[in-house]
Amino acid sequence: MSLDTLLFQATLAAYGLASALALTDLFGRWSTARAARLTLLAGFGLHCATLTTRIAAAGLLPLAGRPESLAFFSWAMVALFLLFSRRYPLAVLSAFITPLALILLLLSRLTPLRPAPTLAGWWLPLHVVLALLGNAAFAVAAGAGILYLMQERMLKSKRIAPLCYRLPALDTLDTINLRCLTLGFPLLTLSMVFGALVAESVWGSYWRWGAKESWALLSWFLFAILLHGRLAIGWRGRKAAQLAIAGFICLLFTFVGVNLLFSGWYGGFTPGAP
Fold first, then answer.
1. Is the pTM of this model over 0.70?
2. b/e for 102-113, b at 16 or more Cβ within 10 A?
3. Which residue has the higher pLDDT, 157 or 195?
């Protein structure tokens, strides 16, 4: 068994245990937040080691295919969550982030490797990295939105469950939603610009209205509406949480679902095809 495979399996095991502990903390009677965080930190360290071995073997960040992109998305999401959790009380948010990171990492091993466009130069890695970092920010925003709706529902029902005391305050969750949105939207916008440059270098056209492009544009519009609503109109609370969740679902379908339902590198188009 190679070192890369061993590290990958160890990362999966750590994320699996961290997911179980995080879900137990969210729905169980006793808090397992500390154990979940320590296990997640260990898994993240193993994940960093896995990426390091692949960088050393490839000579650059391995993002040429869908499996590598899924693995990097998983890594970026955990990294951003751990960064936010240093400032905000977000222990229970790991019940959303960690299982999703585990699923993405599993998909990275199950997804067949497809050749990347060879004419895109540096535009392709820039496009992929920016897109995945933006996706990670929106994942944290969606998780905060889910917790917001849960907390709001419990408070309105006036049935204060033990979980209510472990969830962050509504204002904290709303602030995280906004911070992630203002971080993720510029990254998503820049990734689409570089994606257009990739398309032009491969197909000679900046935009071809394939499934991937169309869903990416829809996701961008959803987050643009949400950002405008928050900054110009003053949207907060439930509406902002619901739109953050809807936007991330659309974005996740763009990233994962389109490739499962449509053929080609960008959903419907194969590099080099007319």
1. yes
2. bebbebbeebee
3. 195
